């Protein structure tokens, strides 16, 4: 898989020059910008164009990416062949540069468990490029590079500094402490808003590895409708993210959402006027 660094990965199945819309149901979860759909922490897109492996790679590079190096081949395979008939789709692996030595184009080896039975076999002495094949299980296969078929590109979308990528989202952990409302204003001045994480536990792990605070503000509140807890984008807080017995509105004053270091799950209601670190999120 391509190194994330401070970026996000997007898997793209390319059309010639235009993108086609995905059903809205596939673009949920606060992760992939339309028209992409999320698989794990990667996003991909399906089209109707076909190219040989080398032309496909050049097309991906023209778009600022490269052929895909998927972290979860079976998941990508399941999605791809729910949308195209195949039989094969190019991904980013080859032995063209060192015959018999199969690696992804980022240098990573192809996982043994992803290869189809008896593959790679270099059938006819001409198979030097990597595909996933619809009727193979596992799906990875070597095939003739000159054959034109669908392909998957991978593009890195970087988070603008000082934001960092966690999954498919861009977050900023503050170095100063503010009340919830002041924190929200500060996030908005940065072009974002308080965080609405799709994976609260992943954010919690990052935050409390990088700050000593007991609590950190995120973007949820019942200030506008007492007892009705939602994120600031209107989404409800997931029941499984609330800490045990929360929200409890302790003392009748807890109207703002935080993640708390020693709670598991970490989400808690707390007093909005308390100054503490906060997490901003920006859309990319």
Automatic annotation (TrEMBL):
Entry superkingdom: Eukaryota
Secretion signal span: 1-20
Record flagged with keyword Transport: no
Pfam families (UniProt xref): Lectin_C
GO molecular function terms listed in the Swiss-Prot or TrEMBL record: carbohydrate binding
Keywords, alphabetical: Lectin, Signal
InterPro entries referenced in this protein's UniProt entry, alphabetically: C-type_lectin-like (IPR001304), C-type_lectin-like/link_sf (IPR016186), Ca-Dep_Lectins_ImmuneDev (IPR050801), CTDL_fold (IPR016187)
Segments forming domain C-type lectin: 39-154, 166-281
PANTHER family recorded: C-TYPE LECTIN DOMAIN-CONTAINING PROTEIN, LITHOSTATHINE
Protein name in the entry: C-type lectin
Organism: Penaeus merguiensis
